[in-house]
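Entry
Fold in token form

___
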Amino acid sequence: MSTSYTWQTLKFPTCNVCGSEFLILDLLIDHCKEQHKNMPYVCEHCGRADKYLSDFKRHQVMHTGERPHACQVCGDAFGQKFTLKTHMKRHAENTYYCEECKNSFKSEEEFERHKPIHAKEKVVV
């Protein structure tokens, strides 16, 4: 199986500040350090440049897969506190909660329609 690429289909590392593209990530990192000195934090994974350390740390979570913000209701974990806050609104809006799969529902009708899914899982053939 052969794969053909054209210059239009290749994705090059791109500066998130000025939009410049580079052949390799190291060139992008050097560019950010030289051209955007007011953006001192440069990601070694993707070349993204940030002005503030807090923004840089928040971005790094995307690459590490770390999920330090856990939901106290269902246990789901998120990389960013903002995402957890958005998730928690779902629990606040939904009053019916399934202990088996941690899903929540706005109405009793939705919850009742959901329950048989778990009964089917328990049937042994």
In short: The first helix runs from residue 25 to 35. The CA atoms of residues 73 and 91 lie 8 Å apart.
